[in-house]
């Protein structure tokens, strides 16, 4: 595959070796950068908003590990917290004070979460929340939205966004038909399709990214989340917000705080682990006390509540005060406005909310997954390669969000917008 004009001798050599021992040379598909027509970039280190690859190229990073790094890379307070925790032991398989304090910090922020269970990944948290919803309602079926991604849980890979959308995979071989049969998929922002699904199926839950960011960022139409809430209440189904991306990002209490729509269960991850593997699901005490050992719904994990991840999560949340959200909101607006300006009158649209931005190669911003798929992904890829050559590291897929962080300064944004304008000009020529 082609590469841009970057120097990439070491990356190319590592990729060659990686292809022998890792499928596709990577440990998660989008990292391979195939969707933008180039080979992967191997990272050496990162600090603040900047990433340095193994060939010494420096980039302004808008992936930030796909969301956990709201303070940028290697924030000194978070690094210090992790080192301090590691010195006391890396894992005990027993409760700690830190996990109680992290759970208290999370429940203080998330309006609908009184109690939670930690896991090591968002995938596990989604899977466990679904189990709980099924146990609580006695129903099996789930409603999800085309283009939404909730982790690589068997039953949730139908028409999923993120890496599946990037690789053009509608679902995955290896998922039993029986697992997929319980998943009902409807288009995002389509009230009639949702009403029909409720009329036709007994649903345990509606699982929704309240601000979907895995088909690119496509905000909910006015009233859509409220409709989901009303239908779930009316039909005795649970509303599950997947706030793995939006939690602690779009507002301290995530999309549920931003919109005022309260789910029954919330799936969280990314920021709450501060860049280490941690996630959680939570809700009312009445629901969460169904989880073992308080209740009969089994759920467990060797590394759940890992002390290093808990330390990183606590340090991350402690730095997120009111000012931080004002700053992140300003940074996001400057980035989104700057990218819009750089695009000029080209058929490009930019969506954004605090901490999230997507550049769609379509004149009108899409309102659902079909709209996202109709965007000019090839032009997005060409533009991304041109950005990388100019020291800006965007998500290597039209179906992902950019993650501006608190480490992105106005100088980073200016540099990015200049690179974006030059890359648009190059992509068009
Ligand atoms: N839910 C959403 C909204 C996500 O974006 C992701 C991952 O990107 C997940 C769940 C799965 O989380 P993990 O990759 O930690 O398993």
In short:
This protein is α/β, with parallel strands linked by helices.
Lay out the secondary structure.
Layout: H1 9-21, E1 43-47, E2 50-53, E3 58-61, H2 76-87, H3 97-109, E4 115-119, H4 122-137, E5 141-145, H5 162-167, H6 177-181, E6 183-186, H7 191-200, E7 203-208, H8 224-235, E8 238-242, H9 254-259, E9 265-268, E10 279-283, H10 285-288, H11 307-318, H12 322-343, E11 349-353, E12 356-360, H13 369-373, H14 377-389, E13 392-393, H15 410-428
Helix pairs in contact: 2-11, 3-11, 7-8, 12-15, 14-15
Residues 66, 121-123, 126, 149-151, 162, 209, 214, 242, 244-245, 269, 279 line the site of pyridoxal-5'-phosphate.
GO molecular function: glutamate-1-semialdehyde 2,1-aminomutase activity; pyridoxal phosphate binding; transaminase activity
Protein name: Glutamate-1-semialdehyde 2,1-aminomutase
Modified residues (N6-(pyridoxal phosphate)lysine): 270
Descriptive overview:
The relative contact order is 0.17. The radius of gyration is 21 Å and the shape is globular. It has two domains: 9-74 and 321-428, Alpha-Beta Complex (Aspartate Aminotransferase, domain 1), CATH 3.90.1150.10; 76-318, Type I PLP-dependent aspartate aminotransferase-like (Major domain) (Aspartate Aminotransferase, domain 2). It is of the alpha/beta class and 429 residues long. Helix content is 39%, strand content 14%. The strands form three sheets. It has a seven-stranded mixed β-sheet with strand order 4-10-9-8-7-5-6, with helices on both faces. The chain has a four-stranded mixed β-sheet with strand order 1-2-3-13. A hairpin with a 4-residue loop joins β2 and β3 (58-61). It has helices at 9-21, 76-87, 97-109, 122-137, 162-167, 177-181, 191-200, 224-235, 254-259, 285-288, 307-318, 322-343, 369-373, 377-389, 410-428; strands at 43-47, 50-53, 58-61, 115-119, 141-145, 183-186, 203-208, 238-242, 265-268, 279-283, 349-353, 356-360, 392-393. It binds pyridoxal-5'-phosphate (PLP).
